[in-house]
Amino acid sequence: MAENELRFLATLAACTPADGFIVEIGSFKGKSTVALATVCNRYGFDPVVAIDPHAGLSYLGPDMPQQTQTFDEFLASLKSAGVEHKVEFHRSFSRDVTNHWNRPIRLLWIDGDHSYRGCKEDFDLFSRYLQNGAVVAFHDALNAFDGPIRVFIEEILRSDRFGPAGFVHSIAWAQYRPREGGLFRKRRTQLDHLASKLIPFVRDGSSLGGLRKIAYKLNRSRVPRKLISPKAWVRLISMSGAVVEK
To answer: Which residues fall within 8 angstroms of residue 40, CB to CB, at 6 or more apart?
Structure first.
């Protein structure tokens, strides 16, 4: 993860105005887990629920080289940062965790299976537990994977269950506002118009190269994705529907 992504992820953890747990799907070696757990430790939040089978990068697809398991490195990262007491880890797939899940979620951080099928399954399984005002965020939505960008566009930008939305580097995020999401439809549609141009380049795991790669990067450059300050982000997600309508 890039440094500005980690900073924004920490902002999401600290400033999301909803009750519930932070759920991370896909922990790998624990870099994002440490960032989230550090915020939880600082502000006295519940432990981060980190879900990952820790089987290397195999979840990115069959073409990935064989990877060693990452669980020991994950635990070492937590211990080194002194936040192991703020992480509830599940060494399993997300679908197995939801068999006994019934807790509210304030931040859903999806960075697991990057295929469309896998990413949509993660979203479908856990989004039902989002609380009003919660945030869902996807990693690698502006990288060459079809799952995060398609699920973000199809299930979030085109849904009136969500309000403010945007990108920071490769993170796609949106606030769950089921009672007034329709008032943010125009803004989401504008973002959809720009972001949906990327889908033909990455659909079904299509590889990028040559002129096709250049065209993908050109279209990606038109999607606003600069780091947003914590104050500006808080103002955005605190915006009332009445203000949006004006």
So the answer is: 13, 22, 46, 47, 48, 83, 86
7: its two tokens: 């900073």
pTM over 0.70: yes
**Mean pLDDT, the chain, as a whole number?**
91
Tokens coding 218? 């050109």
Question: Which parts of the chain are beta strand (E)?
Answer: 21-25, 48-51, 87-90, 105-110, 130-138, 162-168, 171-176
- Over residues 168-196, the mean pLDDT reads 96
d(CA 190, CA 199): 16
- CA nearest to 8, candidates 130, 127, 135: 135
Q: How many CB atoms lie within 10 A of CB 163?
A: 25
pLDDT in tens, 186-236: 999 999 999 999 999 998 777 788 999 999 999 999 999 999 888 999 998
Q: Which of 188, 129, 103, 125 is nearest to 153 (CA)?
A: 188
As a whole number of angstroms, the distance between CA 162 and CA 123 comes to 14
- String of b and e for 103-121 (b: at least 16 CB within 10 Å)? eebbbbbbbbbbbbebbbb
Q: Which residues contact residue 17 at a Cβ distance below 8 angstroms, ignoring those fewer than 6 apart?
A: 133, 237, 238
Contacts of 45 (CB under 8 A, 6+ apart): 13, 22, 39
Per DSSP, the three-state class of 204 is helix
Amino acid at 197: K
Task: Determine the topology of domain 3-235 in CATH.
Answer: Rossmann fold (3.40.50)
